[in-house]
Every structure is written in C-alpha cells, then in structure tokens.
Write a structure and sequence with these properties.
The protein has 140 residues and is mostly beta strands. Helices cover 14% and strands 36% of the residues. Strands 2-3-4-5-1-6 form a six-stranded antiparallel β-sheet, with helices on one face. The longest helix is centred in the N-terminal third of the chain and has 12 residues.
Length: 140
C-alpha cells in the first residue's frame, strides 16, 4: 500500500514562555507590547483517537501578513489523563507563542526582548519546531 508523504510547513517562530500569569492576562500584555489584538478563539483539540481528546486554550491575531498564536501548553481539566500537554517534551513551559511573519520583518530576538519586559514572565526560549518530538501537534 502506497503512503502519501506530505511535507509539513514549520516556517514560524516558536517561543516557549514560563509564566504563572492567567492566559487572558498574558494575551493582554502581549497585545500592549506588540500593538496587536490577540483574541480568544475556539480551543484547539488534540485527540489520540476518536474517543479521547483534550482542549487547549488558544488566542490568535491574524492579518494578511502575520499570524500570532498564544497557546497554553497544559490541557484544560478533563477526564482524559492521557493528554496533559500539547508538547509533553516541553512540559516545564506554560505557553507557546507561534509567530508566522510573511514579511520577515519581525526577528526572534525582537520578540524575546519585548516579551522579557512582561512582569511575571520568568523564562523564554526560542525553539526550532522541526526538532521537537511532537511537532505535529503544532499544525493547525
């Protein structure tokens, strides 16, 4: 049986955020710093099979040239103990900021420098998504 191999596009900046802030407060701080309007959108659901799925809090800002997502790493409380984190290999981090900039005018250094100004952000790390074990979980 032939398999279809589709190359995935991981051409976005991925920044991990360690912070005890509530998701809506962190989104509000990011909105202030970058002059964007991250809004809560439908939760992102990850499923192992048809019966087992977990939801993740998800904020998004999108224009013609840029897409910014703030996603909580820990799943919303549910009865499914099998999926606790969007990226289990990065379970020590609370949030992920995904930035797809089609103009290539926003550098990861600028993003990290700006995010460091948010009170309550304890640690930031830029990650290459192609090196992650569960990178497919970041495809929306």
């Amino acid at each position: 049986m032939a398999r279809l191999n589709v190359p995935y596009d991981f051409s976005f900046e991925l920044i991990t955020i360690l912070s005890s802030k509530k998701p809506h407060k962190l989104a509000w701080e990011i909105n202030k710093i970058f002059g964007v309007n991250l809004c809560r959108v439908d939760d992102f659901f990850l499923s192992l099979n048809t019966n087992v799925k977990s939801g993740f809090i998800n904020f998004m800002f999108k224009t013609e040239y840029i897409t910014i997502r703030l996603i909580k790493n820990k799943a919303k409380p549910n009865r499914n103990p099998k999926i606790n984190y969007l990226l289990p290999e990065l379970s020590q981090y609370d949030f992920f900021l995904l930035v797809e900039d089609f103009t290539d005018q926003i550098s990861s250094e600028y993003l990290i420098e700006s995010l460091r100004k948010i009170q309550g952000v304890e640690h930031l790390l830029q990650i290459n998504p192609t090196e992650l074990k569960n990178k497919e979980n970041l495809l929306f």
